[in-house]
Amino acid sequence: MPNDEITGRILAIIAEVQRRNPAEVTLDSTFEQLGIDSMDGVNIVFALENEFDINVPDDDVKKLGSVREVVEGVTRLVEMKAAS
Amino acid sequence: MRRAVVTGIGVLSALGLNREQYFEGLTAGRSGIAPITAPGCTGLRFPNGAEVKGFRAEDHFAPKEADFLDRFAQFAVVTAREALRQSRIQWTDELRENAAIITGSCVGGQTAEDQGFHDVYKLGRPRVHPMTIPKTMANAGASAISQEFGITGPAYTISTACSSSAHAIGLAFHMVRSGAVDLAITGGSEAPFSFGILKAWEAMRVVSPTVCRPFSRDRDGMILGEGAAMLVIESLDRAHARGAKPLAEIAGFGMSSDAHHITQPSADGAAKAMRAALRDVRIDAGIVPEQIGYVNAHGTGTTVNDVTETAALKLAFGDHAAKLAVSSTKSMHGHTLGAAGAIEAAATIHALGSGALPPTIGFNEPDPDCDLDYIPNTARGSRIEYAMSNSFAFGGLNAVLVFRRVSEPRA
Hints:
By secondary structure, chain A is mainly alpha-helical. Helix content of chain A is 64%, strand content 0%. Chain A contains four helices and no strands. Chain A has helices at 3-18, 38-52, 58-63, 67-83. In chain A, helix 1 (3-18) crosses helix 2 and helix 1 packs across helix 4 (67-83). Chain A is globular. The model of chain A has no long low-confidence stretch (mean pLDDT 93). In chain B, strand 13 and strand 14 (397-404) form a beta hairpin. The A-B interface holds A 37-39, 42, 46, 58, 61-62 and B 45, 203-205, 209, 221, 261-264, 303-304.
């Protein structure tokens, strides 16, 4: 799966869970800009786990603070899954 | 105005099958946390829980009785029996009519409900067990206590998540103090170890993959627990008249709501409930924060709760916060959700009566954001007069109880 496609799907899911206009959600958005608190973060990761059929460890979720970090983390997990 | 005292306590917890085992475990600093053994509860991201080990329904109920009661309701009945035995209540028809039963439970009969859903959704069966509804309802424990003892006064159940049984005890206290009832059986019970609800907790990402280490810098979440505690509350005059020995006085109860967030706690909201509890003390025309010597903290062991509760204690107690002895007994008996307020009220009463303040176990290193005295790892001898028990629920609903040591009998 090309990374651009993964990135696009992640941004769309973040926008959907946060009830934001997709145009507002970019790789450079911070959680603060998008009003994402810790519970929102858990909801977003849940949606991403379902979308990509991956499991994100609890410790990693606690460290997330920006859209870019989410994209990098999820992309890594998707690639690991494809390679296994 | 009446004064209200506790004359009986019953406890089922991960530390044992009765009050004495619970108190001994608390003072010894023993952990009740172990790998989860409930059927079907495997493959979770958290392997450990604080289950009531060795509880067998057949030791307490005839088979037909047990069929009608979910585990959480069985816990309620067994602890009510223990509390009433200790209080040596002599029932009359008049007393039965003037006694209240007020219980707390967060999730009610989850085991029964989960089984029913499993049958229809997973196994595709066309029907579920006909007792699923009455076993699941959160008031099943209160109703079973009423039936067993023939108590015909007010009975109801409060469900305010992790504050449920603290709210229950507080309202029972107010009913006894006001004279609305002569006696109350009050507390809470919870039995959340079924796969469906454990998966829901897993999804929230707040449960520790290890153990519960409240206020310790390396804490990594809460540990779910099950259990129950029931108290018998009556007026001080009534207890004296019948020669009963009060275990502690319930001195005050305060409530507040954060009006903030569905899961994030608020220091301001928690502090409001603590202040309200201090204001509610009517003995000696109210007490000041400096009179509280011990706080049994909500202390879940999550990063956010423990920092927020520390801040709330400073808001409510000011400079005295640094002198308070604070501990979270959840480090030993886990977070028993709707039963937590009652199980921790029992711990607080025992601390006052025995002079042994229970520790926070698993405390490995101080956290700069949690800089109070948390009684790390070992119980501490201390004779105090007033103690507080904190309960703060998801949804921002706070309930705080204040207890007072009973004076030594006059010679």
